[in-house]
Structures
1.
Amino acid sequence: MSLRIIIYCLDNILHMKGFIISKTIIILMLTLIMLGAFAPAIAGSLDEYIKRTLFVQTEQMAGLINVMQASPSGTSHKFFLPKGECELTVTNGVINLTQNKNSILRETISHMVVEDKKILCIKGEDRVFYIKRCGDRIFIDERERRCN
Amino acid sequence: MGEKIMSPGEQFAFIFSMLITLGTILILVSLFVSTRPVVQTDSLIRTNAEIADNIFTSNLVVPRAVFVAKELDGRKGSQLEEPVRHCGAGYFIQVKTKDEEWSFGYQPEIFTDGLSVSQEYPAAVSKNGIQPAMVTLTVYDNLFTRVSCMAEKAYKLGEIQKTEIPCELLITDKSEISDFRDCTFALYRKEMLGERKFMCTSSRQAAFGRTMTECRYLPDVFFENTFLNYTQQQNSATTLKAYPVKSQTSCQAIKINPGIIAKKGEVRSVLFCIE
C-alpha cells in the first residue's frame, strides 16, 4: 500500500502533476523527518519542564514552611500537589519531592521543629495537605490538625 | 495517468510555493526547539525576607521586631547564626540605632564571589525605652555555605551529598607553567564562644600573602577534619562528596568497604572525599 503511494507520488512529482497532493505529501514527510530529528531536543525540553515545575513546587513548599515558622500558633495553609504519582518526604526540615524519577531537595529555616512526614500522591487524584503551626512545631498532615 | 504536463510558469509556482512552505516549517520548528524557558524564583531575596521574618519573631525580640538589647549584646561581634538558621544560606545581621550598632552572623572572607542579597528592615531596640532602628540583613549563598550544608544534610539525613568544587584555594603558582593546578581544601572543626561548634576553612593565597580563615556556625553536626589535596585541570571542576559514616574512617576505607557508610539513625560523623 505504502509502496503504491510512493510510486504514485513520484510519478506525480516527475510529471509535475497533482500539484496539491504532491506538495502536501512532501511537506508531511519532511515535517515528520524534522520532528523525528528534533525528537531528543523536544523530549529534553519536556524533561526540563517537569524538573522546573518540581523545583518551583519544592521552593514554594519550603517558603510556606519558613513563613509558617514566623506565624502565630494555629496558622495553617492548604497545599495542593499536582496530579500524578509523586512522593513528598520531610526529614529534619529538608523537603524532598520526587516525581517521574526526578528529585528536588530544599532546606527550610531551622527555627521551629518541622515534624517528619511522608506523603504519597496517587495518579489521577488531587493530593491536598495542610501545613500547620501548633505551638513551636510545624506539622504536615493530609487532614487539618487541631492544636491542643 | 495521461494528464497534461505543467507549463514552465506552473512549475516555477510549484517550486516557489514549496520553498516558502518548507522555509516556514523550518523557521517554526527551529523557533520551537530553540525556545528555552527561564524560571527565576529570586530564591535568595525570598530567603532573606523569610530569615528576617523569623528573626523578628524569635527570642531576640519582644514583641515583634523590637530587639532586646541584652540578647543583642550577647551575640555582638560573633559569628553565630541563631536562634534562626538556614542550612544552605548564611546570613549577617546589623542592627543600628542612632547611638549604637550590633552585628553578628556569617561573613565570607575567602568565598567572596558567591551570591549575596542585602535588604533593610525597619525595627526597634528596647534599651532605656524603645529606640527606632534599622536592620540590614545580608544573605550569602556560596561554596562554603553549600559545603557546610552538605555536612549537615549528610549527618541528619544519612544520605551521601555531593557538589562540584573548583580550585578555590590555590597554594602554588604552578598554574603559570602548567595546565594543572595543585589545589587544597581544608575543612576543620573549631570550638568558639564556649562549646559552640563551627566549620572552618583556611586559605594561604600567594596573591594576598597571608592565611585567611572563614568559619560558619554548625551546631550538632560532627564531621572529620579534612585536608584535601588534589590536582585539577584549568577550567574544570572536581566532585566533593560528604559521606555519612558509622565510625572514624578514611576515604580509601570507604572505597574498600562501603559498609562503613551510614544510613539515617546510624550516623556518627561525616567524611569529605574528593572523587
2.
Amino acid sequence: MTEKYRNYLAGYAFLLPWLIGFFALTLGPIVASFYLSFTRYDLLTSPQWIGTKNYVDMFTDDYRLKDSIWVTIKYVFLSVPVRLSFALAIAMLLNQGLRLLNLYRTIYYIPSLLGGSVAISVLWKQVFDKEGVFNQGLGLFGIDGPAWISNPHYAIYSLIGLSVWQFGAVMIIFLAGLKQIPVELYEAATVDGAGKFRKFAKITLPLLTPVIFFNLTITLIQSFQTFTKAFIISGGNGGPINSTLLYSLYLYIKGFTFLDMGYASAMAWVLLLIIAVFTGLLFLSSRYWVFYSDGGK
Amino acid sequence: MTIRNNTKSLLLHAFILGFGLLMLYPVLWLISSSLKPTTMIFTDKSLWPSVITFEHYSDGWSGLRNIQFGRFFLNSIFICVVAIIGVVVSSAMAAFAFARIDFPLKKLWFAVMLGTIMLPGHVTLIPQYIIFHQVNWVDTFLPLTVPKFFAEAFYVFLIVQFIRGIPRELDESAKIDGCGWFMLFMRIILPLCAPALITTAIFTFMGTWDDFFGQLIYLSDIKKFTVPLGLRLFLDSSGNSNWGAVFAMSVLSIVPSLIVFFAGQRYFTQGIATSGLKG
C-alpha cells in the first residue's frame, strides 16, 4: 500500500465518527422528516400517507398555529434588535480602555451565562408577577405595573425582557469587534473636528457592520428556536390564550403531547423555511449595508 | 484638569458598576430570597436578609416523591461528563483529519459539515426520537449521551481553526522520527490544542447542563431526572406554596455553571470572541 492510500485511509478513519453521525443522525433524519411530513404518524401504528394535508391544515385549519407564528414573529423582531442595540451600547461603554475591564465584562456576562436555565425562567416568573420585584421597582416611581405573566397582552414582553437580559455573549463579540477598529481613525477624525456622534456614525458603525451582521444572523436563528423560557414561564401550555406559544413550544406540544409526529415534522419544515427566508434576506441585503475593509475577500 | 478627569473616570466606573449590579439584581434577589424565612420572602424588601435560614436548602434537597435532589445532580453530572468526553474526542478526531490529512472529497465534507452548523435541530428531532424509540432507548441516558460521540460540527470547526495555527514543521519532524498519523495526533496535536479542547469541554458542559428540551423529551422516570427536570417538577408540585425551596434549588442548579465559568473564564471569553457562535 502506498503512502498516498495510507493517508486516505487515515483521513477517513479519523473522520469516521463524524461521518457515521452525519448519515445516521443528520442526513437520514432530514430525509425521514421530509417523508413523515406527508404522513399521519402517532408512533404506535405505521405512518399513513396523506399527501399535503398537514401543510394545508397548517394554513387553513389551525388557528393556534396562526397565533403561534404571530407570537414568534413578534418575539423575534422585538427581542433581536433590542438585544443587539443593548449589547452594542454596553460594549461601547466598556470599550474605553478601562481598568477592571475583565471584572465588568464578567458581571455583564453572567445574565447570558445563566439566562437559558430553568432556574432563571422560574425566577423570571416570580420577578414579573403582579406582586413581583419588577412591579415593586416600578412602584417606587409611582407606577402600578400590570400582571406581566398572567395578562395575555403583556406575557410576551416578559419573554422578550428575558431575551434582552441575555445580551452578554453578543456584547463580548461586539467588544472584540470594537478592539479591531484602528485608533488612528478616531485620532484623524478628532483632528478634523468630528464630534462623538459623527465618529460613531462614520467610523464605528460602518467598521462594525460585519460583526453586526454576524450577530444578527446568529441571534435571529437562535431566537426562532427559543423553547425553555416559554415552556417554564407558561407552565408548558403557551398561555395565557396562546400569548407565549412560541413556535418551538407548539411543535413540542403537537409532536410530544398529541403524538402527531407527521404534523410536527411538517411544522419543522415550515420553520426551516421561515428561518431560511429571513437569513436569505439578511444575506441578500448585506451587500448594501455590510462594509468589509478588505473588500470582502 | 487631572482632578476633573479623575472625577469623570470615577463617575464612569461607578455607573458601570451600578448598572452591572442592576443587571445582576434578579440573581442577587434569588440568592437572598432563598436564605429568608418563608414569611419574609415577599415582605422583607432588603437584599440583605435580616434573618438568615438554611431551611429551604435542606427542605428542597430532600426532594420529592422519595427522590433526593442530589440524585438529579448525579444524573446531570453523569450525562455531562460522558457528553464532554464524547464531543471532545470525536470532534478533535474529525478536526485533525480536516486540518492535516489529505483525502478524497475532503473539501466537500468540510462544506457539508459547516452547513450543518446552521441547521435548526427541529428538522432532525422527530426522526431521531423515532429511532431512539425503536431501539428502546427512550427513558434512558443513551439518547442524551451516545450522539455526542459523533462529533459536533461547531466544535470541529473551532478545533480545525486552532490546529491550522500549529506549525506544520512539527508534523514533518515527527514523521521523520517515525510517528504515524495516530501517534502524531496523540503526542503532538492533542497536547498542543489543549486550549481549544478546554473551550470545547466548557461549552459542551454548559450546553448539556441546560439542555432542558432534550432531557424533557427523552426522560420520564423521575429516578432518571436531571437538575432542570427536577427543578421544573419541583415548581409544578410545590409551586406557590413553597417558593423558598424552589429558589434554594434554583440557586444550587446554577452553581455548577458559575464554577465552570469562573474556572475557565479565559477560554470562555476567547471562545466566544473568536468564533462567537454559542451562548
